[in-house]
């Protein structure tokens, strides 16, 4: 039986195409609220980051999520991302 094709997504910091399960999705919904999307299926504008502490810190420093999601991303979102990466 053929293997199921693994979906690839691009990390907004490194511009690398990686399997979706190796990335964290951040979403801005139509109300302008920003969330860390653990399911990868929430409605809204999404951006992907590698599950790497240095990548998340680079994203924070360069404000790339603000540009990608067209909104200002709160400090707590970056902290939540760092906490999640620390777990894995």
Reconstruct the topology from this structure.
Elements: E1 8-10, E2 17-19, E3 23-28, E4 34-37, E5 45-50, H1 53-62, H2 64-69, H3 75-87
Helix pairs in contact: 1-3
Protein name: YlxR domain-containing protein
Organism: Piscibacillus halophilus
Pfam families: YlxR
Describe this structure in words.
With 88 residues, this protein is α+β, with helices and mostly antiparallel strands. It has a single domain, classed as Hypothetical Cytosolic Protein, Chain: A, CATH 3.30.1230. The protein is 33% helix and 25% strand. The protein is built from 3 helices and 5 strands; from the N terminus they run E-E-E-E-E-H-H-H. Strands 4-3-5 form a 3-stranded antiparallel sheet. Strands 1-2 form a two-stranded antiparallel sheet. Strand 3 and strand 4 form a beta hairpin. The longest helix is centred in the last third of the chain and has 13 residues, at 75-87. It is globular.
Number of helices: 3
Distance between the termini: 31 Å
Structural class: alpha+beta
What's the SSE pattern?
A: EEEEEHHH
Percent of residues in helices: 25-40%
Q: Radius of gyration over alpha carbons? A: 13 Å
> In what range is the share of β-strand residues?
25-35%
**How is the CATH topology named?**
Hypothetical Cytosolic Protein, Chain: A
The largest sheet has its strands arranged as 4-3-5
Summarize, please.
The chain is an alpha+beta fold and 88 residues long. Helices cover 33% and strands 25% of the residues.
Keywords:
88 residues; globular; 5 strands; two-stranded antiparallel ribbon; 33% helix; alpha+beta; Hypothetical Cytosolic Protein, Chain: A; 3 helices; three-stranded antiparallel sheet
């Amino acid at each position: 039986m053929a293997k199921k094709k693994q979906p690839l997504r691009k990390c907004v910091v490194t511009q690398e195409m990686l399997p979706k399960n190796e990335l964290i999705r951040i979403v801005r919904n139509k109300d302008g609220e920003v969330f860390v999307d653990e399911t990868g299926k929430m409605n809204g504008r999404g951006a992907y980051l590698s599950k790497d502490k240095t990548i998340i810190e680079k994203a924070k420093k360069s404000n790339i999520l603000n540009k990608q999601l067209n909104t200002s991303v709160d400090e707590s979102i970056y902290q939540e991302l760092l906490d999640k990466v620390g777990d894995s």
